[in-house]
Known about the structure:
The chain is 35% helix and 18% strand. It has 522 residues and is of the alpha/beta class. It folds into 2 domains: 33-215 and 394-482, Rossmann fold (3-Layer(aba) Sandwich); 217-383, no CATH class. The strands form 4 sheets. Strands 1-2-3-4-6-5-7-8-11-12 form a 10-stranded mixed beta sheet, with helices on both faces. Strands 9-10 form a two-stranded antiparallel ribbon. Strands 13-14 form a two-stranded antiparallel ribbon. The protein starts with 9 loop residues before the first helix and ends with a strand. InterPro entries: AB_hydrolase_fold, Tannase/feruloyl_esterase.
Amino acid sequence: MKRASSRLPYRTTCMTLAAITLAACGGGDGPTRPAADATAEKACAALAGKTVAAAAVTAATTVAATAADPLYCKVSATIAPQLHLELRLPQRWNGKLYYEGGGGYNGAIPPLMGPALKALQQGYATVNSDSGHTGEGLSAAFALNDPLAASLFGSAAVPAVLSSAREMVLAAYGQPPEKAYFEGCSEGGREALMAAQRNPGLFDGIIARAPGHNWTGFMGHWNRNAKAVAAPGGQFSAAKLGLLAQAVRSACDANDGIADGIVSNPQACSFDPAALRCAGGADTGDTCLSDAQLAVVQSRTSPASFADGAYTSAPLALSGQEDDLFAGWEMWVTGAGNVRNALHFLFQDTTVKHYLARDPAQDSLAYAFESNPAALQNLSALNDATDADLRPFKNSRAKLILWHGGSDPSLSPQATTDYYRAVTAAVGGQAEVDTFARYYIAPGVGHCEGGPGADQSDLLGPLDAWVTAGAAPGTLSAAKVANGMVQASRPLCRFPQYPRYTGPANDAAAAALAANYTCTMP
């Protein structure tokens, strides 16, 4: 159910948001410290029932400490008419602000967990938003008849929320935040790059994980892939996904120095899916792939191009994890036997319905993705964060960390690699990009997390050290954690390096330790 709101005229609201955006770009003159007597309880009292920098506080509640959560003040607020945010103010504030991005098509305040929880535990004030509408993360219905909601989702929500959050922190603690950082994955990664491109002075540092920055190209590619799966004979059984994944691992896994189920050196992988072709191309069972199934593989692993090259999408290489529960195809591509249950289908379907065809009854499998050039252009103008010229961001002295899971089944690591290379060229070469940006690929990791690889990495700590102390990050650390215990560790290597096993052979204990891997050029 959509939350009722008293809507201001669209033009008036946009002008208000524009003013807020400009105001958000200002920073402090120097380091600040929170008031000595600042507490979560006093922060709540300072904000309860107030309107601060266009944000009307609807609730301010002290949340008691638990084994996992620190004591903090939870503040809910609304920037009229429809942008909802949640600010969390810790008992012991470190003087900084952390903004966590959303996911999918947003529509709700993300729960306190993962990187945002860790930031709060470290003393950051943290903020999230619903990006300007209430709804399901798999639905773009908000964009059909609400241009303000579409604008907020596209790029306007983040600067508006940050402006209010800064002033609310000042009101709560008596000092503004001395640094502000943004971190997001997937849609949150798109928001991260959008901020770097359109509001380059907004944040002191940005972490963009697996960014969905190429929104139009990705949606077109997913539309093409869904049609291939839906074609007669295109669906994959679990056995066929296992066949494909095992063939990739057999051909490519050991190219990184160890056969551990993770393809860490994909550039050395030369596996040809045609080797799995059924005799004559017909589907003769689970020991081979038919021509229709090979067409699905070809659709995913080849570039996509639309509108005479105006919108493109990088290939999604085979990773050897096609059969993985969280890093594989069942969830994202095939829908476990029904393509209409696959996440890629659902995302492109709602995009076709509400941005392109502008008809909720449109069947995306029957829709020609390039049929409405004006709608494609509008979608791109709203949601694409593909501008590689980050010189204004660089000149603001802000820092950027890019990260992508090497086995991501949703968003192509190659797309992030292509963007990083484009940024490198746009700012004047490697020496220049090294002054403000780092890029890491985590082998065997799925979409934002999951997969057999080491998927847990603290990027906020290195970013803060880079911003505040000038300590540029090099090789970082990553871990695979289960039930609160580290199962394995790996170095997180700066692109284009990958972690190559250099430890003793046939030693499972050694293979679980980062010390036995060396960051190596492909």
